[in-house]
Amino acid sequence: MSERYKKQTDHNEYLWEGTGEPDAEIQRLEQALEEFRATNLVPPVFPMIAYAARRPSSRLAVTSNAWVPRSAAATLILTAFTIALLLSLRELTLPDSNTGWSVELMEAPADSSPAASKLKRKMQMQVGEAFETNRVSTANIAVADIGRLELGPMTRLRLLQSVAGRKRIALDRGTIHVAIWAPPGEFVVDTSSAVAVDLGCMYTLRIEENGNGLLRTTLGWVGFQSNGHESLIPAGAAAATYAESGPGLPFFEDASKEFRSAVSQFDSAKEGSAQRFAAQQVILREARARDGLTLWHLLSRVSEVDRQAVFDRLSVLIPPPASVTREGILRLDRTMLDSWWNALDLGDIGLWRHWERSWTGQEMRQK
Amino acid sequence: MQSTLDFGPRVLEHLLVTEEQAGPHDSDAIFVRAAQQGDTEAFGQLYRRYVRMVHGILLGRVRHVEVEDLVQEVFLRALPRVCELRDTSRFGSWLATIARNLAVDHYRHAQTRPERPDEGSDPDEQPAKFSVSANREAAEILDCIRSLPEAYRETLILRLVEGMTGPEIAAKTGLSPGSVRVNLHRGMNQLRQKLALGELRNPNNRKNRMTV
Known about the structure:
The complex is a heterodimer of chains A (about 375) and B (about 210).
Chain A lengths: L1 H16 L6 H10 L17 H10 L9 H24 L7 E7 L10 E8 L4 E3 L4 E7 L3 E5 L4 E8 L2 E15 L6 E4 L4 E4 L3 E6 L5 E7 L1 E6 L2 E6 L2 E6 L3 E2 L3 E2 L4 H12 L5 H13 L5 H8 L4 H14 L8 H5 L3 H10 L6 H17 L1
Parallel strand pairs in A: 7-8
Antiparallel strand pairs in A: 1-2, 1-4, 3-6, 4-5, 5-7, 6-7, 7-10, 8-9, 9-12, 10-11, 11-14, 12-13, 14-15, 14-16
Helix pairs in contact in A: 3-4, 5-6, 7-8
Chain B lengths: L8 H13 L2 H13 L3 H20 L4 H15 L12 H22 L19 H15 L3 H12 L4 H8 L3 H20 L16
Helix pairs in contact in B: 2-3, 3-4, 3-5, 3-7, 4-5, 7-9, 8-9
């Protein structure tokens, strides 16, 4: 009875999500019907659509056979037209580029907690300007209408760009706490060693005077990029950045102390050094399944010889998808790396690739 | 370096919404919002994510040889309307509705237009893309599925043809996981019965076939 029940349950699970003991008949149907499957997965070139012009008319259209009298319909049409005109004029007359960011400078008496801070001054920050806090002051900055920054003491930043679709600052030193609710890739922070790209989240970034720093993600995830190195940092993880080498390996903050120390040692040691190799061995030994995040990044930061050991360890922790081969990973095939990333279940890497393409295009247009 | 942030209610409200949405739909919503701002690359990402669902829905309703063109048409219909979609997390169910409506329109149009010589009811006369002799069984299984009630037909095609899992079907179409599970099991039982009754090999049952 129990065996039969188990078999039935397994077959149900196979039908439901392809797990459990395969049902032979369903497998036969799958194989037979596979030829009807969608094969053209490449999207066509979609035409550009001017949405803004279409929106008001589609919502406010009044037909002549409506129950309202014709004069009322005419009034409605006129009102709708006026509203649409005002809305479009508002958009035209208030471009982001002319709008400064609101800054609230807070100051606390020495030796008191930040909660005791009081508003000292309100001001506007324009593109090209720098802003700095001292030992007793902090600041809150509204990032246009897409988010908010809090600056810790002794922080200096510059506003580089504020246009629709792109807000960019440079953090020279100090600490910022960031909360952004714009589409991914819209808010970018330049530091001397890496560029932090918001992918819909909340994070803290600290940069020291020497250019080294640390980024910790609280919600969503952040891309950290420099000179071909990229670190994707999901919530609960952090990554250091170094003035000389750029973003380090991201790691979950709940990893073991040995693991975190080894990551730090690996990041700061010279390429090919014995110290770096020793750190790599500890990382592989101490890694949990969750630390697949770090191992995935490690794949592209070690030599091809060392990559084999990383592949083997990551395969045990997070089995690669069927489309991913050892040979492909050893030659750093991007499609395979991306597929494996998606198996980590930390978010779709397509989001990051999409941002990379749009960013590259925007940079090219600016040049 | 502990955060001392005390975010205002507006920020917290947004972040709570973001947390609730975290999951497969989270990045969909992001792509939808980008598409609503005219980003055709983002719409391309949505195409990649939903093309199998749209393909499966259409395959349950129209001939296989016509599905590919109609898939493109579904997305081209959706593109200019995506800005009207207020709940970005409902993109999948919204797109599924467009696909179903397009299939209905197509069927009505096909009923009223004169029959062309290549639209006969015998599948052997179809300009099929594959070898008929090698795929007769597959075509007949597909017709068996198409003869099931609509809810079962669509879910089974997404599972057996498009290779989507039950949870994936639920997430993409907006149906509840419970409904999808029921549709899969009841549909599969009915399909097994039909296959066991030998409908595949009974020539009398081929009269009303859609001819793949």
